[in-house]
Amino acid sequence: MSNTNESVVSACNLGLTFHTSDGPVTALTDVNLDIRRGDFVSFIGPSGCGKTTFLRTIADLEKPTSGTILVNGMTPDQARRKGAYGYVFQAAALYPWRTIEKNIALPLEIMGYPASEQKARIERTLDLVNLSGFGKKYPWQLSGGMQQRASIARALAFDADLLLMDEPFGALDEIVRDHLNEQLLKLWERTNKTICFVTHSIPEAVYLSTKIVVMSPRPGRVTDVIESTLPRERPLEIRESAEFLKIAHRVREGLRAGHSYEEH
Ligand SMILES: Nc1ncnc2c1ncn2[C@@H]1O[C@H](COP(=O)(O)OP(=O)(O)OP(=O)(O)O)[C@@H](O)[C@H]1O
């Protein structure tokens, strides 16, 4: 049963410093954030501010050096073992020698789902991302946007409630991106997932999110958390509304404040 008050990700004074041969690199400092079930959270900030590192920490791909982070109330390690999240990377990261359906099957194979269950899940997730009928194609036979949708299908296939998406549409042209943004919102509505989404685009962040996390340049800190006042139902034209522009303005201000922090 989903409970909208449940905390899916809870970060408390989270810090992460990489120890490199050139000395320590602090990617995150003192990040406090609460993400609730059903939230669509965007992370926006300049290059290198720690957005990917934060997502990777949720996914247990990086270990914090200070503070704590809980995923579904568990440590990231426990959550990962329970298949708590699906991860969509910047590039579609599909295996070229596997068909689309075999790519989607991969995590299901690893998790030991029986063949009949795999087939049903592949069909269902292909349908969710509007790729029914493309399962037998190879990634190179699909457009960039379709490949990204296939990688979203792969992340959805095992019913993780949490979807981590690292700039999934960054490399696509604006028309395709608009279309995928609309589709992603519909998918979020239909599936009631919690989504963490990294982007460099202010309009994309405002259009998609219920919550926008603005981050400052290195060391990455959260400078503003904006709760969206836009309705859940969002036609693309909403981007011209006064409310939308107001939120975009606040994001821009937050980004600017982060920059001046670095100069002082
Ligand atoms: N494994 C690593 N070892 C050393 N430093 C790292 C490592 N991973 C990331 N960093 C550094 O940590 C900082 C944050 O990187 P991160 O990739 O999280 O930023 P980002 O905000 O996602 O950037 P972008 O928007 O360019 O993708 C950067 O300065 C990066 O060079």
Automatic annotation (TrEMBL):
CDD domains: ABC_NrtD_SsuB_transporters
ABC transporter domain mapped to chain residues: 9-242
GO molecular function: ATP binding; ATP hydrolysis activity
InterPro entries, per the entry: AAA+_ATPase, ABC_transporter-like_ATP-bd, ABC_transporter-like_CS, ABC_transporter_ATP-bind, P-loop_NTPase
PROSITE patterns found in the cross-reference section: ABC_TRANSPORTER_1, ABC_TRANSPORTER_2
Keywords: ATP-binding, Nucleotide-binding, Transport
PANTHER family (UniProt xref): ALIPHATIC SULFONATES IMPORT ATP-BINDING PROTEIN SSUB, TAURINE IMPORT ATP-BINDING PROTEIN-RELATED
Family listed: Belongs to the ABC transporter superfamily.
Name of this protein: ABC transporter ATP-binding protein
Native source organism of the sequence: Rhizobium setariae
Lineage: Bacteria, Pseudomonadati, Pseudomonadota, Alphaproteobacteria, Hyphomicrobiales
